[in-house]
Write a structure and sequence with these properties.
By secondary structure, the protein is mostly helical. It has 2 domains: about 5-35 and about 115-130, Orthogonal Bundle (Regulator of G-protein Signalling 4, domain 1); about 35-110, Regulator of G-protein Signalling 4, domain 2, CATH 1.10.167. It is built from 8 helices and no strands. It has helices spanning about 5-10, 15-20, 20-35, 40-50, 55-70, 80-90, 100-120, 125-130. Helix 4 runs antiparallel to helix 5 (about 55-70) and helix 4 packs across helix 7 (about 100-120). The chain starts with a helix and ends with a helix. The mean pLDDT is about 95.
Length: about 130
């Protein structure tokens, strides 16, 4: 469990929250309670994807991310526009480390501007700061 001081740091910047293992776990639990954990799961999958070295693994991971989060009726479909989805569908044929960048930025922005402020207001977070 984080100290109240550590938890208070998370309110200074969204990146502080994501960089902290307790912060990330707390935020993830909050998103789960709000039925929108697909956003953080997608963001984390993209972070892992960008670290992938092997071209074979890159292609496999790209297809998995696409199947899990991007394609129509995906089990954890994220809320992104049609153009971004189409661009990704084309890009994963020749997967590169940047094929999900636009979607990842969009999801990050959604979390930072919508979920993150609600998280900071939540009783759950307030309790961690006491």
């Amino acid at each position: 469990r984080p100290s109240p001081e550590e938890a208070r740091l998370w309110s200074e910047a969204f990146d502080e929250l994501l960089a902290n293992k307790y912060g990330l776990a707390a935020f993830r639990a909050f998103l789960k309670a709000e039925f929108c954990e697909e956003n953080i799961e997608f963001w984390l999958a993209c972070e892992d994807f960008k670290k992938t070295k092997s071209p074979q693994k890159l292609t496999l991971k790209a297809k998995k991310i696409y199947n899990d989060f991007i394609e129509k009726e995906a089990p954890k479909e994220i809320n992104i526009d049609f153009q971004t989805k189409s661009m990704i569908a084309q890009n994963i044929q020749e997967a590169t480390h940047t094929c999900f960048s636009a979607a990842q930025k969009r999801v990050y922005s959604l979390m930072e501007n919508n979920s993150y402020p609600r998280f900071l207001e939540s009783e759950f977070y307030q309790e961690l700061c006491k």
